[in-house]
Design goal:
Strand content: 15-25%
Number of strands: 7
Shape: elongated
Radius of gyration: 18 Å
Oligomer: single chain
Structural class: alpha+beta
Number of domains: 2
Bound molecules: zinc ion
Order of helices and strands: EEEEEHEEH
């Protein structure tokens, strides 16, 4: 009997192939998921509660910026912690933004912390 939950080299979130040569091999991480996943056209790739075991591609690990709604590339996100704040959120409720989306004050704090 084959294990239907193992989706091999496919991304658990976007369903794309992450195998070597696919262009998504770099920065992929082993992952599993049970949440609903939709493709760009809104079609369901994985149903809510459907367990699958595979990988997460770098694209799917990117975060959405709280201020401009664009995706932030991995490792380029800025959190209040990066600006020396003890709070989990910036004063406007944002918690993860692009560096260029920081306010002037936040940028100053960020430079102070990160040199
Ligand atoms: Zn993906
Ligand atoms: Zn942004």
């Amino acid at each position: 009997m084959s294990n239907k939950n193992d989706i091999g080299n496919r991304c658990v979130k976007c369903g794309e192939d992450t195998s070597f040569g696919s262009g998504r091999f770099v920065n992929r991480i082993p992952a599993d998921a049970t949440y609903e996943a939709l493709d760009k056209n809104g079609n369901i790739i994985f149903k809510e509660g459907e367990y699958r075991d595979g990988y997460a591609c770098a694209e799917c690990m990117a975060f959405e910026c709280c201020r401009c709604d664009e995706m932030i590339p991995m490792d380029e996100d800025v959190t209040p912690y990066d600006c020396g704040s003890e709070e989990a959120e910036f004063s406007d409720g944002a918690y993860r933004v692009h560096h260029e989306c920081l306010t002037e004050i936040e940028k100053l704090h960020f430079e102070e912390i990160n040199g």
